[in-house]
Amino acid sequence: MTTDLTTRLLDLACAIQQIPAPTFAEAQRAAFVRDQFSALGLANVEIDDLHNVFARRPGLGRAAPVLITAHTDTVFPAETPLTLVREAERISGPSIGDNSLGVAGLCGVLWALGDEPLPGDLYLAANVGEEGLGDLRGMRRVMDRLGGAVQATIVLEGMALGYIYHSAIGVRRLRLTAETEGGHSWLHFGRASAIHALVRLGAQIADLSVPTTPKTTFNIGTLTGGTSINTIARQASFDLDLRSESPATLAALVAQVEHLVARANSAEVRVTAAVIGDRPAGSLPREHPLVQAAARALEAAGLPNYSYETGSTDANVPLSRGLACVCVGLTRGGNSHRPDEYIDTRDVGRGLDSITRLVRAAYATAPGR
Predict the structure, then answer these.
(1) Do 164 and 294 meet the contact criterion of CB atoms below 8 Å apart?
(2) Which residues contact 135 (CB under 8 A, 6 or more apart)?
(3) What three-state secondary structure class fits 228?
């Protein structure tokens, strides 16, 4: 890719980064992306009620459509300062790589293609709800609408260059809540405390043993509750993230947690577990034509040091439905989900080149071709 095209792509990524887009509050960024799509002369540009943005680049009608997507939401609250630092080989700032650059890549692919005709329509979707408790709601809607029409889906992430995600780990997220009578810390000492109950339960969960193969993890990410330091807490909760490469192992881990929750209940304490996130698992074989097309595209762009990966991305949704999908990236970076998140700008041109090559190749990856 030319230096001018790379600079243009980075400038757009920076413009997108300056628009706050916390999960569930992506409307402003969605409007900006819609305007970019409209300026490119795309067909069927629209925003749905979730603030997913859709567009279509008409093709020759000789092949089934291909879809490229990128999530617009970020992990940062709306009040986060969106300070950018641009250096010779690096740009730093909240969400610059995850996923402002990925969203900019949707337009970058169109710029790289220019007037080149494609065998079939190219659909684009800038979707919401990939981060945190968004639970992939945007991508679920995109797949409900387009999954049956397209032969391949390509998910763009800003900082995943050199990784080909073709397998999706399962994720179950639970909110565990304890409720008690509560009272005064001095006058009613000895009554059950919701916080005490949850701390004990959390310690039991922390002591669970999980396998390294298939890789399986758990994490208590947030803990809230109570009224004051001298009040026996009436209510408290924590959010628990459970993951595994194996659906069966994940189900077994969830069952262990549910058993501990049941044991934590008593006459004085009510403990419940509510599902707040469920990312389904799925995969494509490494030998699948789309996976191999992604590998060849990286090699042709001068990026031979790639790897096949398993992860949790928007690709979970199509992969769980048995649809062809890979998640790939535009460059490398670091400090993801931190205010000092950064991207390395040196490989952005080659990253865009590899994705553009993959888009072209995806039209020949349908079964039987």
Answers:
(1) yes
(2) 129, 173, 276, 277, 278, 279
(3) coil
- What is the radius of gyration, based on Cα positions, of the chain? 23
Helix (H) or strand (E) holding 92: strand 90-92
Amino acid at site 109: V
Domain ranges of the chain: 3-168+281-362, 170-279
Is pLDDT of 368 > 90?
no
Provide the CATH topology of domain 170-279: Alpha-Beta Plaits (3.30.70)
Which residues, in sequence order, are CB contacts of 104 under 8 Å at separation 6+?
A: 9, 10, 12, 13, 16
Domain 3-168+281-362 and domain 170-279, same fold? Reply is no
CA atoms within 13 A on the CB side of 160: 28
Label residues 196-215 b or e (16+ Cβ within 10 Å = b).
bbbeebbeebeeeebeeeee
Rounded to 5 degrees, φ, ψ at 256 are -60, -45
Residue 152 has, within 13 A of its CA and on its CB side, a CA count of 27
Phi, psi of 24 (to 5 degrees): 80, 0
Q: Architecture of domain 3-168+281-362 in CATH?
A: 3-Layer(aba) Sandwich (3.40)
Helical ranges in the chain per DSSP H: 3-17, 27-39, 101-113, 137-146, 194-206, 247-264, 289-300, 316-320, 348-362
Condensed to tens digits (0 to 9), the pLDDT of residues 125-142 reads: 999 999 989 999 999 999
Rounded CA gap, 150 and 159, in Å? 25
Contact 98/25 with Cβ under 8 angstroms?
no
If you average pLDDT over residues 110-139, what whole number do you get?
97
Angle, to 10 degrees, between the axis of helix 194-206 and the axis of helix 247-264?
150
pLDDT tens by residue, 228-261 = 999 999 999 999 999 999 999 999 999 999 999 9
* Predicted confidence (pLDDT) per residue in 200-214, tens digit: 999 999 999 999 999
Query: Are the C-beta atoms of residues 356 and 106 closer than 8 Å to each other?
Result: no
